[in-house]
TrEMBL record, chains A, B:
Keyword Cell membrane: no
Name of this chain's protein: Phosphomethylpyrimidine synthase
Gene3D superfamilies in UniProt: 6.10.250.620, Radical SAM ThiC family, central domain
Cofactor(s) recorded in Swiss-Prot or TrEMBL: [4Fe-4S] cluster
The organism of origin for this protein: Olivibacter ginsenosidimutans
Length: 622, 622
């Protein structure tokens, strides 16, 4: 029977952000238009000096795709415009296949009972011509700057360079401490993007079968990124919900989205998600492979897994989590753990190894996997199947043994010019987080680290977005390139839309706190704009500059709903008599008027100020 | 007209915690009963081996006071039982005054219009006999171990020692890194408590006029504590609400509560709060002083401020925030800041200094303040009136100039045997947090640091419990003794009950993450118990061990409401086929049965395991 609820234009969030407009910056090497969000600010007015002074707009990195651009018409039934199609065609190294290559994909297509839930406008898959490698790493190593690379350079800069020339005061920021990353180099150039990809220090996930994406990059020397997991489980949730969850996640700032569906119709659900996703999509192919053998891990085979990789690669999955580091000899190392193996993929492979007493087929067939990856430009996300699931198990022998193997596999992947990132833990107390980062950099030759949290304590189920947000901010600062979000439902249930938003906002905070601490170029600009607006009581600007304008406004209006309050020079926290900001304004105005250095200001200043106050009958607050 | 809503027994939260009971541990030196919460756990059952094994109960630090003990009858109109009264009397160094000493206090008492909202059972105030110093620091320096000190030793230990003898496996924890704190000394003894107080490294806030408190300690070598701010503002909220907010805040884990009321009836509101508070209460006396001069800072005088200190000391306030470090010469240092002065107290004193072009009377009269403090045992919380209000202003000249002055004042306070802690920032990017901690330890001779956050970014109003929870966890790890919570309403409005709970839970997480990272004795025990319960699918135990059992249960039941799901060996996240935990159980069981070291287990193990799986037709999941 027809059980699936399908997406419709009405079920997709498309409201633009308040006080913001979508702007597009043209490329110079390529014919590209790079989207960003421009937040316009109101002018600064001094009620005493009768001066008004413009505040330049603030451009922010925008992951939300065309959904927040009211000028773009989107039909979720047809999917997003195929931005990258001409770029891919111009490279002339791919072919369009007559039909799907995977047996499973063909069988689903042949099943007419699925017609009703099938994405109608699926295209024929594209694949590298025989003997070609279509990975961005391969191009980079040839010295080619692809449109994707230039797109990223412009996107990462967010017009900093241009704005900086106009007004560099707003760009003042603390130097930061970046633990040897290369983030003090100023603005990002297309060449830098290319070189980081060639070096393996950055990953540009961009399957040739996912032309809908707005290219983004994952690397220690770029802005810290975040991933949001969605996907239904045996405990149902519909295709409609999952597609909206994806759109909702990118609206609030998810840079990539992983579809971890384990329920029925995984294949069709994925097609709907990818065709409507402007961000890279990741999956854990072993989940679907396990469904194909009815949950019996021991019945998994290399052939079946291989068919699953091809199936998903031809749909357009941009990166695969593959737990090839869970080796037979490591399984017993988990025997004395408090929480054993907590990674689904890891436990599936451990079970297979035990059942067959054989080395993992992911490990033994790794080079064959590389061949598939480079034919579609799917990136590796080498899974940490033995990550600790509790504070007690942090940084143990099993975890680090696997990490060393992931380093060995990274070198093999790079030999094939396959883009690679490394997944990390998990549950780690604060003082043991840096050891993870340092070991990953060492073992994996600076391949991007992609961590889940880490959670810094086990005792707060219901708040694990926070227990993990603490660890995420720290490991992001230490050098992690992408932070996989954790929602408040972690350990308890499947996240709903509210949980997805809470998780994404928390991780945007962690990622930004990390960029600030690293001293990433321009990172502090938005903070400076917010603080200036705060000091000048420009409430609307404060809301619009916030990561979550809706909540900021709602919280403010809860106590002071009147429109007048939006221009009031105080708030409900202190009330007019207790506003600490105004007095500071007076001190500053004084020093500026006099054009004095603060030192001289002390004596001269204080005396005049005292007199002035007398004159005004001490009425400072209006 | 009668506008105030007063508390009533019905408006106070008294529900006990699920699966928990209040236990009282007797003292050995003194006749004291120290309350803690004991969480009982269900036994571990192995469905395969048919074994059940008891899990010892977990004792946790309990800030909620008698309110969560159903055997205690509480009448909010009469206030809490006066636990410390006999201890104070036995010291025989205090006198009960015939009447209130402060002019203001007397005038309020004489005002019959206030009768309806006055706390009826207020007692006559107590004060040190002439020439006596009744501070805990003074006793400690005499070598005396007071009942308060023994109470704290027992409370901090949470029966760790006793439990440890029974079962030390649960006590295994990571060593931690504590940056030179003295937290590796094992269990806390009364002597250690005394010596830390004498040394000035710990503060035991305990006004002789607040006998209702269950003594607690604030110091780098003890468990990290958290404070919750409550209090109404000009924008009204009632006495009823504020008292319930206090009870609500300690229920979820606030170790102390600050009453920052700035509205009308501050004096009476405070009486209601203190008489019903089992935790130390802090205030910022300058707020009330400013109300007394109708918000005109320049009209403040030392005499009026002194009267306010005495008024509040005789009501029982346990610690005063005093911004004596905001000196005239430092004010101009804030002139070029992005957000100037953001501390209310700081801006009030800056305004006074400007208006009079004189040095702050808090600074010039500091020794007189000390005389008042030691006559009631009020502790100093030396305020950071020049803390940065934005990332841009972090660690600047104004902030650090004030901190150096606070160090100078600490030595003066210690000369008078007055307990002292130091308040800290504010808004600080992650990489600049440690500099604050290190400078505070150096300048202030290891006096306890008490920080607000710090917030690690400015761009997330509505989520500042999280932006600051990150910084709080880190600075707690570095050595901060107490973390002042920040609620989601920070920068936007006054917190309601939900905000108070969100702020408190977030800060409990930060404080505990810090204890784990420091390797505080026994800190990991609750995490271990939680993780064991998680691994064994003891859902009820997971809920009951959680910082917030209600939310954990609610989130779980949202997807799996059935009672059966509470014993299911899977959850809605992965469903039965994807449960990563069971396989680990099998691996571990095997190794244990064989009594093998993991190394040998590899080969022997794998082969037998393989065979066993065949036998069971690969049916591992039931």
């Amino acid at each position: 029977m027809k059980t699936e609820k399908l997406p419709s234009p009405e079920t997709i969030s498309r409201t633009p952000f308040p006080g913001s407009k979508k702007v597009y910056v043209k490329g110079q090497l390529h014919d590209i238009n790079v989207p960003m969000r421009e937040i316009s600010l109101s002018p600064t007015t001094d009620r005493f000096k009768n001066i008004t002074e413009e505040n330049p707009p603030v451009t922010v990195y925008d992951t939300s795709g065309p959904y927040t651009d009211p000028t773009v018409s989107i039909n979720v039934l047809k999917g997003l415009p195929k931005l990258r199609e001409p770029w891919i065609e111009q490279r002339n190294d791919t072919q369009t296949l007559a039909s799907i290559s995977s047996d499973y994909g063909r069988s689903r297509l042949a099943n007419s009972e699925l017609n009703y839930l099938r994405f109608e406008y699926a295209k024929k898959p594209r694949k590298a011509k025989p003997g070609y490698n279509v990975s961005q790493m391969h191009y980079a190593k040839q010295g080619i700057i692809t449109p994707e690379m230039e797109f990223i350079a412009i996107r990462e800069n967010q017009q900093l360079e241009e704005r900086y020339q106009k007004d560099n005061t707003l760009w003042q920021q603390h130097k930061g401490h970046n633990f040897g990353a290369h983030t003090h180099g100023g603005f990002i150039s297309p060449t830098f993007v290319r070189d980081e990809i060639a070096r393996g220090r950055a990953v540009l996930p961009s399957n040739i079968n996912h032309p809908e994406i707005e290219p983004m990059i994952i690397g220690r020397n770029f802005l810290v990124k975040i991933n949001a997991n969605i996907g239904n489980s045996a405990v149902t949730s519909s295709i409609e919900e999952e597609v909206e969850k994806m759109v909702w996640a990118i609206r609030w700032g998810a840079d990539t989205v992983m579809d971890l569906s384990t329920g029925k119709n995984i294949h069709e659900t994925r097609e709907w998600i990818i065709r409507n996703a402007p961000v890279p999509i990741g999956t854990v192919p072993i989940y679907q492979a396990l469904e194909k053998v009815n949950g019996k891990a021991e019945e998994l085979t290399w052939e079946l897994f291989k068919d699953t990789l091809i199936e998903q690669a031809e749909q357009g999955v941009d990166y695969f989590t593959i737990h090839a580091g869970v080796r037979l000899p490591y399984v017993p190392l988990t025997a004395k753990r408090t929480t054993g193996i907590v990674s689904r993929g890891g436990s599936i492979m451990a079970k297979w190894c035990l059942a067959h007493h054989q080395e993992s087929f992911l490990y033994t067939h790794f080079e064959e996997i590389c061949e598939i990856m480079k034919a579609y430009d799917v990136s590796f996300s080498l899974g940490d199947g033995l990550r600790p699931g509790s504070i007690a198990d942090a940084n143990d022998a099993a975890q680090f043994a696997e990490l060393e193997t992931l380093g060995e596999l990274t070198k093999i992947a790079w030999k094939h010019d396959v883009q690679t990132m490394i997944e990390g833990p998990g549950h780690i107390p604060m003082h043991m987080i840096k050891e993870n980062m340092d070991k990953q950099l060492k073992e994996c030759g600076e391949a991007p680290f992609y961590t889940l949290g880490p959670l810094t304590t086990d005792i707060a189920p219901g708040y694990d977005h926070i227990t993990s947000g603490i660890g995420a901010a720290m490991i992001g600062w230490f050098g992690t390139a992408m932070l996989c979000y954790v929602t408040p439902k972690e350990h308890l249930g499947l996240p709903n839309k509210k949980d997805v938003k809470d998780g994404v906002i928390t991780y945007r905070i962690a990622a930004h706190a990390a960029d600030l601490a690293k001293g990433h170029p321009g990172a502090q600009h938005r903070d400076n704009a917010m603080s200036k607006a705060r000091f000048e009581f420009r409430w609307e600007d404060q809301f619009n500059l916030a990561l979550d304008p809706d909540t900021a406004r709602e919280f403010h209006d809860e106590t002071l709903p009147a429109e007048g309050a939006k221009t009031a020079h105080f708030c409900s926290m202190c009330g007019p008599n207790f506003c600490s900001m105004k007095i500071s304004q007076d001190v500053r105005d004084f020093a500026e008027e006099q054009g004095l250095e603060t030192k001289e200001a002390v004596n001269k200043g204080m005396r005049e100020k005292a007199a002035e106050f007398q004159k005004n009958n001490f009425e400072i607050y209006s």
